């Protein structure tokens, strides 16, 4: 799971928490590795004529390298993504189609369609490649004494759950152990920052590690590419509590009442609030609001609104791990007042960038095809211009063109989005409360419509019905759902070929793209054919 552009914002705004590893005086006890990114790293070195044995060897060698570099004393947790919740699978399906389409267009334009390129869709639970990798990991990391550690904990793609969530489930299940030990989390996903923050009340000595070349891109020039850095999540948590707690509150008589951070009833509530409001900027499960763009004013808008609405230091959106919906109402009520103005600002900003890109496109470059495709959302903006927030009825046009529905359906869309806020928060805190839930639209409701259905009473709650089948799908079902037509051969036992024969309508290649308010092509939403999970499961079971 990830938050676009968040990592760059995070390190620039909180530079002081980036610490050279040599400055960490405590011995590292635990190293927990979220390893899917290492597979992509291996593939991207050279995708042509790639053989799977070399990829697997690279992954095993890289894991061993990180263990020897960080020198943990106790546990090493090696995690890969297993079967995901359906909410995540929707994003996986979208991304795999975009990747297939992008590669297809580039190869056709460059006349390299005959060139063999390794299919990254193989990095999905249930494929033969992932089975081979699982076997290699289990056979390579069997002797802890070779690495001077106590034990290995291995959870590969054959065990359900996203890699990072399996790591934090282990932390939750072993609270006492993690309360006093030092834990380093390795991974390239920016969402690891939020997950680590969310578990500070359990694991107070927690750091994130990224390799320096990746880590220092677009950051501070004083960071040395030859140095290894850790992100001090405990320090970051303290920064959030201080930032979210006003040091003074203006009283009616013009005087100021000082507020001491130490008087907070539960500082963790502030950290949870920070995590919760950032959901509005979009993540793997929910789209971002057009009025809240993380690349422009979105973060500042969220933080400013929070500080204005919650001047009482002990008044929070999250209380002891539960969402206080009446406070969500107060917060969204404030945000909705600037919604139209912020959307207009986005149009003005995007117009400026579009003009620049069109000017730059006159210059022929070696990567002209890739650049034009990647910048398509900024170059071709007919739907945005049709919505036109400067003219009456723009709300109707927003729902009609982007959500394939009318303004009268805003309540249903808003209810689904509220469920998403609850589902995502619970997913971070206690695990997956419903494997079959998903947000069913490419775009969110407008903030003004979302506000209308947020509960306002003290005991109100948003309940996600568990349903009859609250369990993960099978690996073959996930493959049948997320793979594009050209990758169906990756499903074992010719299941993909059979699916294509029985259900050809599920695997169309001529889909439309929605990219309004996106910056890059890979952020686009694809109008993919609807696949009913019950039908998919029954079809596979009967093969």
TrEMBL record:
Gene3D superfamilies assigned: 3.40.50.12390
Name the record gives this protein: Xrn1 N-terminal domain-containing protein
Residues annotated as domain Xrn1 helical: 268-364, 389-536
Keyword Heme: no
Gene Ontology biological process: nuclear-transcribed mRNA catabolic process
A GO MF label: 5'-3' RNA exonuclease activity
Keywords for the protein's UniProt record, in alphabetical order: Exonuclease, Hydrolase, Nuclease
GO CC list: nucleus
Start and end residues of each Xrn1 N-terminal domain: 1-211
One Pfam entry name: XRN_N
PANTHER family: 5'->3' EXORIBONUCLEASE (PTHR12341), EXONUCLEASE XRNC, PUTATIVE-RELATED (PTHR12341:SF29)
